[in-house]
Write a structure and sequence with these properties.
elongated, 9 helices, alpha+beta
Length: 266
């Protein structure tokens, strides 16, 4: 215990700029923290619990062999080389991603996503989205088709969009990008409200500021996510995506009712 704890604690404290900063964050006297790091002293059970809680760990995790502890704890992500103010912004976003990871975990799964088409309000686009977690990030991967559902496979070229989710103010915020650096680049922001009841399969919100280079204006549209059964992507669910007329019976009536509650583009 006296050997592994200092090693694991040093791994944690290493991600602070100094021992003083780490001590302040942990609420521990700097000299006392130095004794913990050097193995000259062990914390009380209460202090051990506080240290573990600060890093979102269990007290027993701090006493694991170094190899197992390294696999158990992921260091916070950092981006270096930015101006101080921007570094603070990025750090705050990353910290929020880590801190709200457990909240976002309950929304992981596969979804059908519907939104009206800006170019043709009489039609609805249905996409396939998977929300998953890798490390500290909550990732949002979407595949959509610009062709009608049921069109020949050879004419259905998928559009793939990757994004990241944040939890803030009781809402899910998704930012995704496509073809960055190319003429058809796209940047999207989506704000979603979680369902009033956990049993409800819908997330409703607004798709905002889609900017497809200079070819389309910035606008916003209603958007609805419907959770699909199971946690593994299904080919049939993906094949059921595409462009539909608004009165197509294959569209979910509940999703359409939610979209129509605020269907006019802004």
């Amino acid at each position: 215990m006296h050997k592994v704890f200092p090693t694991n604690l040093r791994r944690l404290v290493h991600h602070y700029p100094s021992t003083s900063r780490a001590a302040a964050a942990l609420g521990i006297n700097r000299q006392q923290l130095s004794k913990y790091l050097s193995g000259l002293s062990m914390p009380s059970l209460a202090t051990l619990r506080n240290i573990a809680a600060h890093f979102e760990l269990e007290p027993d995790d701090l006493l694991l062999p170094a190899e197992r502890f390294a696999a158990r704890w992921r260091p916070p992500m950092r981006i270096k080389g930015l101006p101080t103010q921007m570094q603070q912004v990025i750090t705050a976003l990353l910290q929020n991603t880590v801190q709200t990871r457990s909240i976002l975990a309950r929304f992981c799964g596969c979804y059908h996503v519907c939104t009206p088409l800006r170019s043709n309000p009489d039609r609805i686009g249905r996409a396939y989205t998977v929300i998953s977690q890798e490390g500290d990030l909550t990732l949002v991967k979407t595949i959509m088709y610009a062709t009608s559902q049921g069109a020949l496979v050879r004419s259905r070229h998928p559009i793939k969009v990757n994004g990241i989710a944040q939890w803030l103010w009781e809402r899910i915020y998704i930012t995704d990008v496509q073809n960055v650096g190319h003429p058809n680049a796209r940047l999207q922001s989506i704000a979603l409200y979680p369902p009033a009841l956990p049993s409800m399969p819908f997330l409703t919100g607004i798709l905002m500021t889609t900017n497809n280079a200079l070819t389309r204006p910035i606008y916003s549209m209603p958007i609805v996510f419907k959770r699909l059964p199971g946690k593994i992507p299904q080919k049939a669910d993906l094949a059921a995506c595409g462009v539909f007329y608004r009165d197509d019976p294959r569209l979910d009536p509940e999703m359409m009712a939610l979209l129509d509650a605020d269907a006019s583009p802004r």
